[in-house]
Predict the 3D structure of the following.
Amino acid sequence: MAKAELKLCPFCGGEAEIKDHGMSTGGWMISCNNINNSPDKISCGVLMSCSADYTARTLKEIHENAKQRTIVAWNTRTQAKDKDNG
């Protein structure tokens, strides 16, 4: 899989940030941290995560796969489909 580049928030156009939630879970989460101009400084608050494809051979490959799947899902504005929920 080619490395995907993270796009802006699909709802507000703000900068998106990807955070690593640990190799043991394969977990990554993308969020929009754009703060609007309201007095209470509410953030956009859009979040997305995606599960890994556990057919990879090593934990590192699983972790990188999860990152790329999360970025692709964010960029296409949909969750990656589960094999079971297809």
